[in-house]
Amino acid sequence: MNTAHELDAWERAYRDFETPAGEMRKFGRRLHALGADRLDLSSRILEICCGRGNALIAWQRLGFRRAVGLDLSYALLRLSNAGAPRIVGDVRAMPVADASQDIVAVHGGLHHLRSLEDLEATLGEMRRVIRPGGHIVIVEPWSTPFLTAVHALSRQPLIRRLWQKMDAFERMYEHEQKTYDAWLGQPDAILALVHRYLTPLVLHRRWGKLMVLARRAPERTGARRVR
User: Fold this and answer.
1) Domain CATH code at residue 116
2) Domain count of the chain?
3) Whole-prediction pTM value?
4) Which structural domain, as residue segments, surrounds residue 193?
5) 4 lies in a domain?
6) Taking a C-beta distance cutoff of 8 angstroms, is the pair 130, 197 a contact?
7) Sheet order of strands, 101-107 included
Protein backbone atom coordinates (compact mmCIF):
# COMPACT_ATOMS: atom_id res chain seq x y z
CA MET A 1 0.00 0.00 0.00
CA ASN A 2 1.25 3.49 -0.82
CA THR A 3 1.10 5.40 2.45
CA ALA A 4 3.40 8.21 1.39
CA HIS A 5 2.04 11.64 0.67
CA GLU A 6 3.85 11.64 -2.67
CA LEU A 7 2.09 10.28 -5.74
CA ASP A 8 3.84 7.43 -7.51
CA ALA A 9 4.53 7.48 -11.26
CA TRP A 10 1.21 5.87 -12.26
CA GLU A 11 -0.75 8.17 -9.96
CA ARG A 12 0.94 11.25 -11.49
CA ALA A 13 0.04 10.02 -14.98
CA TYR A 14 -3.54 9.40 -13.85
CA ARG A 15 -3.69 12.92 -12.45
CA ASP A 16 -2.39 14.34 -15.75
CA PHE A 17 -4.66 12.24 -17.95
CA GLU A 18 -7.91 14.02 -17.20
CA THR A 19 -9.09 17.03 -15.23
CA PRO A 20 -11.30 16.28 -12.23
CA ALA A 21 -14.19 18.10 -13.94
CA GLY A 22 -13.82 16.02 -17.09
CA GLU A 23 -13.62 12.79 -15.12
CA MET A 24 -16.76 13.66 -13.12
CA ARG A 25 -18.71 14.30 -16.33
CA LYS A 26 -17.44 11.02 -17.80
CA PHE A 27 -18.46 9.03 -14.72
CA GLY A 28 -21.86 10.69 -14.73
CA ARG A 29 -22.45 9.77 -18.39
CA ARG A 30 -21.52 6.15 -17.72
CA LEU A 31 -23.82 5.88 -14.72
CA HIS A 32 -26.64 7.36 -16.80
CA ALA A 33 -25.94 4.93 -19.66
CA LEU A 34 -26.24 1.99 -17.24
CA GLY A 35 -29.43 3.36 -15.67
CA ALA A 36 -27.75 3.72 -12.28
CA ASP A 37 -29.10 7.26 -11.98
CA ARG A 38 -32.60 5.77 -11.70
CA LEU A 39 -31.78 3.77 -8.57
CA ASP A 40 -33.01 4.76 -5.10
CA LEU A 41 -31.35 8.06 -4.14
CA SER A 42 -31.22 6.97 -0.49
CA SER A 43 -28.95 4.04 -1.41
CA ARG A 44 -25.79 3.37 0.56
CA ILE A 45 -23.01 3.39 -2.03
CA LEU A 46 -19.52 1.93 -1.74
CA GLU A 47 -17.23 3.13 -4.55
CA ILE A 48 -14.17 0.87 -4.54
CA CYS A 49 -10.84 1.82 -6.13
CA CYS A 50 -12.20 5.36 -5.85
CA GLY A 51 -8.86 7.12 -6.36
CA ARG A 52 -9.17 10.87 -6.02
CA GLY A 53 -12.93 10.57 -5.48
CA ASN A 54 -14.42 12.00 -8.66
CA ALA A 55 -16.86 9.10 -8.97
CA LEU A 56 -18.14 10.00 -5.51
CA ILE A 57 -18.85 13.52 -6.74
CA ALA A 58 -20.55 12.09 -9.86
CA TRP A 59 -22.88 10.10 -7.59
CA GLN A 60 -23.55 13.24 -5.54
CA ARG A 61 -24.42 15.23 -8.65
CA LEU A 62 -26.98 12.57 -9.54
CA GLY A 63 -28.64 13.14 -6.15
CA PHE A 64 -27.08 10.34 -4.08
CA ARG A 65 -25.92 11.46 -0.63
CA ARG A 66 -24.67 8.30 1.08
CA ALA A 67 -21.53 7.39 -0.86
CA VAL A 68 -18.30 6.13 0.71
CA GLY A 69 -15.00 5.64 -1.11
CA LEU A 70 -12.44 2.86 -0.64
CA ASP A 71 -8.96 2.77 -2.14
CA LEU A 72 -5.56 1.26 -1.39
CA SER A 73 -3.75 4.55 -2.17
CA TYR A 74 -3.68 6.99 0.73
CA ALA A 75 -2.00 9.55 -1.55
CA LEU A 76 -4.89 9.51 -4.04
CA LEU A 77 -7.52 9.59 -1.30
CA ARG A 78 -5.92 12.80 0.01
CA LEU A 79 -6.64 14.47 -3.34
CA SER A 80 -10.39 14.01 -2.99
CA ASN A 81 -12.68 17.02 -2.70
CA ALA A 82 -15.79 14.86 -2.55
CA GLY A 83 -16.58 15.58 1.09
CA ALA A 84 -17.55 11.93 1.45
CA PRO A 85 -16.08 9.41 3.89
CA ARG A 86 -13.08 7.55 2.49
CA ILE A 87 -11.46 4.32 3.67
CA VAL A 88 -7.98 2.98 3.01
CA GLY A 89 -8.50 -0.69 2.28
CA ASP A 90 -7.83 -3.71 0.09
CA VAL A 91 -10.68 -4.66 -2.24
CA ARG A 92 -9.83 -8.34 -1.75
CA ALA A 93 -10.66 -8.09 1.96
CA MET A 94 -12.84 -5.03 2.44
CA PRO A 95 -13.26 -3.61 5.96
CA VAL A 96 -17.01 -3.46 5.32
CA ALA A 97 -19.84 -5.40 7.00
CA ASP A 98 -21.78 -8.16 5.25
CA ALA A 99 -24.88 -7.06 3.28
CA SER A 100 -24.38 -3.43 4.34
CA GLN A 101 -24.41 -1.67 0.96
CA ASP A 102 -27.16 -0.94 -1.56
CA ILE A 103 -24.74 -0.23 -4.42
CA VAL A 104 -21.12 -1.25 -4.90
CA ALA A 105 -19.36 0.37 -7.86
CA VAL A 106 -15.95 0.35 -9.49
CA HIS A 107 -14.75 2.58 -12.31
CA GLY A 108 -11.50 1.23 -13.74
CA GLY A 109 -9.95 -0.49 -10.72
CA LEU A 110 -10.33 -4.20 -11.36
CA HIS A 111 -7.83 -4.28 -14.23
CA HIS A 112 -5.09 -3.30 -11.76
CA LEU A 113 -5.47 -6.61 -9.92
CA ARG A 114 -2.57 -8.98 -10.40
CA SER A 115 -4.40 -12.23 -11.10
CA LEU A 116 -7.72 -13.91 -11.74
CA GLU A 117 -7.55 -15.15 -8.15
CA ASP A 118 -7.46 -11.51 -6.97
CA LEU A 119 -10.39 -10.69 -9.26
CA GLU A 120 -12.35 -13.64 -7.89
CA ALA A 121 -11.63 -12.52 -4.32
CA THR A 122 -12.79 -8.98 -5.14
CA LEU A 123 -16.00 -10.10 -6.84
CA GLY A 124 -16.65 -12.34 -3.86
CA GLU A 125 -16.21 -9.36 -1.56
CA MET A 126 -18.52 -7.23 -3.69
CA ARG A 127 -21.17 -9.93 -3.44
CA ARG A 128 -20.58 -10.27 0.31
CA VAL A 129 -21.07 -6.59 1.17
CA ILE A 130 -24.07 -5.96 -1.10
CA ARG A 131 -27.50 -6.45 0.41
CA PRO A 132 -30.05 -8.77 -1.24
CA GLY A 133 -31.63 -6.79 -4.06
CA GLY A 134 -28.72 -4.34 -4.22
CA HIS A 135 -26.84 -3.39 -7.36
CA ILE A 136 -23.24 -3.65 -8.55
CA VAL A 137 -21.73 -1.31 -11.17
CA ILE A 138 -18.55 -2.24 -13.05
CA VAL A 139 -16.81 -0.13 -15.71
CA GLU A 140 -13.46 -1.45 -16.97
CA PRO A 141 -11.32 -1.31 -20.14
CA TRP A 142 -12.17 -3.90 -22.77
CA SER A 143 -10.49 -4.96 -25.97
CA THR A 144 -12.42 -3.39 -28.86
CA PRO A 145 -11.31 -1.86 -32.18
CA PHE A 146 -11.72 1.60 -30.66
CA LEU A 147 -9.30 0.83 -27.79
CA THR A 148 -6.82 -0.71 -30.21
CA ALA A 149 -6.87 2.50 -32.25
CA VAL A 150 -6.39 4.67 -29.15
CA HIS A 151 -3.34 2.65 -28.13
CA ALA A 152 -1.89 2.91 -31.63
CA LEU A 153 -2.19 6.70 -31.48
CA SER A 154 -0.75 6.99 -27.98
CA ARG A 155 2.42 5.17 -29.07
CA GLN A 156 3.29 7.75 -31.72
CA PRO A 157 6.04 10.07 -30.40
CA LEU A 158 4.66 13.10 -32.25
CA ILE A 159 1.15 12.52 -30.90
CA ARG A 160 2.55 12.25 -27.38
CA ARG A 161 4.48 15.51 -27.74
CA LEU A 162 1.48 17.42 -29.06
CA TRP A 163 -1.30 15.90 -26.95
CA GLN A 164 -0.74 15.76 -23.19
CA LYS A 165 -3.74 13.50 -22.62
CA MET A 166 -2.32 10.87 -24.96
CA ASP A 167 1.09 11.12 -23.33
CA ALA A 168 -0.47 10.60 -19.89
CA PHE A 169 -2.52 7.69 -21.25
CA GLU A 170 0.62 5.99 -22.52
CA ARG A 171 2.48 6.67 -19.27
CA MET A 172 -0.34 5.03 -17.33
CA TYR A 173 -0.13 2.06 -19.67
CA GLU A 174 3.65 1.80 -19.27
CA HIS A 175 3.30 1.58 -15.48
CA GLU A 176 0.46 -0.96 -15.49
CA GLN A 177 1.29 -2.88 -18.65
CA LYS A 178 1.53 -6.32 -17.05
CA THR A 179 -1.85 -6.30 -15.33
CA TYR A 180 -3.53 -4.25 -18.09
CA ASP A 181 -2.45 -6.60 -20.89
CA ALA A 182 -3.36 -9.63 -18.78
CA TRP A 183 -6.83 -8.17 -18.20
CA LEU A 184 -7.45 -7.45 -21.89
CA GLY A 185 -6.07 -10.85 -22.89
CA GLN A 186 -8.50 -13.06 -20.95
CA PRO A 187 -12.02 -11.78 -21.61
CA ASP A 188 -13.69 -15.21 -21.45
CA ALA A 189 -12.22 -15.99 -18.03
CA ILE A 190 -13.19 -12.56 -16.70
CA LEU A 191 -16.77 -12.84 -17.95
CA ALA A 192 -17.03 -16.33 -16.48
CA LEU A 193 -16.14 -14.93 -13.06
CA VAL A 194 -18.54 -12.02 -13.48
CA HIS A 195 -21.36 -14.44 -14.20
CA ARG A 196 -20.34 -16.69 -11.31
CA TYR A 197 -20.62 -13.94 -8.72
CA LEU A 198 -23.08 -11.52 -10.32
CA THR A 199 -26.30 -11.59 -12.30
CA PRO A 200 -25.96 -8.88 -14.97
CA LEU A 201 -29.00 -6.77 -15.78
CA VAL A 202 -27.06 -4.67 -18.32
CA LEU A 203 -23.78 -5.71 -19.94
CA HIS A 204 -22.16 -3.64 -22.71
CA ARG A 205 -18.82 -4.18 -24.46
CA ARG A 206 -18.17 -1.22 -26.70
CA TRP A 207 -15.98 1.85 -27.17
CA GLY A 208 -13.17 0.19 -25.24
CA LYS A 209 -15.24 -0.46 -22.12
CA LEU A 210 -16.97 -3.28 -20.30
CA MET A 211 -19.98 -1.77 -18.54
CA VAL A 212 -22.10 -3.85 -16.17
CA LEU A 213 -25.10 -3.21 -13.94
CA ALA A 214 -25.81 -6.35 -11.93
CA ARG A 215 -27.31 -7.92 -8.85
CA ARG A 216 -25.42 -10.42 -6.76
CA ALA A 217 -25.72 -14.02 -7.88
CA PRO A 218 -26.84 -16.60 -5.31
CA GLU A 219 -24.01 -18.60 -3.80
CA ARG A 220 -23.77 -22.07 -5.28
CA THR A 221 -24.16 -25.00 -2.95
CA GLY A 222 -20.75 -26.47 -2.27
CA ALA A 223 -18.93 -23.66 -4.09
CA ARG A 224 -15.78 -22.24 -2.54
CA ARG A 225 -16.53 -19.04 -0.69
CA VAL A 226 -13.96 -16.34 -1.38
CA ARG A 227 -13.01 -14.29 1.66
Assistant:
1) 3.40.50.150
2) 1
3) 0.90
4) 9-216
5) no
6) no
7) 86-88, 67-71, 45-48, 101-107, 130-141, 209-216, 198-206
